[in-house]
Amino acid sequence: MKFGIISDIHSNSEALDCTLNNMGKVDEFICLGDIVGYGADPNYCIKKIKDLNCRCIGGNHDFAVIGKLDINYFNDAARKAILWTSRKIEENNKIFLLNLNKKIQVIENIFAVHGSPREPIFEYILDKNSAYDIFKKYDFKIYFIGHSHLAGCFSFNKSNNQVNYTDFINGGYIEILKNKRYIINCGSVGQPRDGNPDASYGIYDTEYKVVKIYRISYPIYLTQKKIINAGLPKILADRLSWGR
Ligand SMILES: [Fe+2]
C-alpha cells in the first residue's frame, strides 16, 4: 500500500497542485495539518483536500482561523494572515476544519500528528533530545509529523539506544528497518523552511518498507503575486523564495 503524505500546505494552491500532479497514484492521502494560514488560497486548498478524501489532522493554523486557539500565540505576520483567512473562509470549510482530529493511526503501529505525540498542536520536535524523549515515552514504529516545515527523519536504534537525524533538504529515502523506529517529517508543501524553496512531500510504501521524500519546484512567483494582491504581509511572499 502507498500513502501520500502531505503537510503544511498553508493556502498555497500552486504548490499543492504541483505536489499532487507529481505524486501520481497512491492508495491513500494523509494530511498532517496547517492546510491554511500564510497564503491566499484557503478555500481552494481545503476543497482540494476534501476531494482527495484524505485522512487529515488539524494544525495550529487550522484551529486558529476557526477560533479554537488564541491568536496571540502567533507572530505578527502569521496573526494577520489568520485574521484575513478567517474572514475569507467559507462556512462549510470552517466546519471541515472544526472536525479535524489531532492524531490519527495510519496503519497498525504507525501514527500521524501535526506537532508531536506529547503535544499534538504546538510542540516542535527539532533536536535529538526531544526525539529521544518521544521514542522512550510512546510505543510506535513510525510517527509522521509536520509543523516545523523541515523535511527530515529521527531514527532510534533499538540495539544501542542512539538517535540519529537525517535531513531531506534535497529529498531522499528512509528504509524502514526492523531494529529501528522513526519520527519522520516529510516537509512542507506550501512554505518550506529548510533553505530549499521547493515543495516537499513523502510517499510511504508499506510493501517495499520505504519512505521517499520528494522536492519539487512550483511557480512561486504566482503564489507571491496572490499574497501581495490579497494585502497579506509581504514577508509571507518573500520567504517563499528563500525557503525560510
Ligand atoms: Fe505550519
TrEMBL record:
GO terms for cellular component: cytoplasm. Pfam families: Metallophos_2. Coiled coil: none annotated. Residues 1-207 form the Calcineurin-like phosphoesterase domain. Transmembrane segments: none annotated. GO terms for molecular function: phosphatase activity. Belongs to the metallophosphoesterase superfamily. YfcE family. This is Metallophosphoesterase. It comes from Candidatus Infernicultor aquiphilus.
